[in-house]
Amino acid sequence: MKTGDKERYQKTDALDSKNLSNQLKAGVLKGIYIPTEAQEQFMSLARHGTQITKKLRQT
Fold this sequence. Notes:
Elements: H1 5-9, H2 13-26, H3 37-58
Protein name: Transposase
Organism: Flavobacterium sediminilitoris
């Protein structure tokens, strides 16, 4: 997407929203990854395991 001179030196919500809407119209925006509940639980378990291992190694 091209940017104008105003966008280079001044950033505002209005310019951001206009830019986002133009990108949406052009189809250049990609969706975001949202993990499932099961994936969230697994990641939480993995983080907890890492924290426990780290604490055990410190003592």
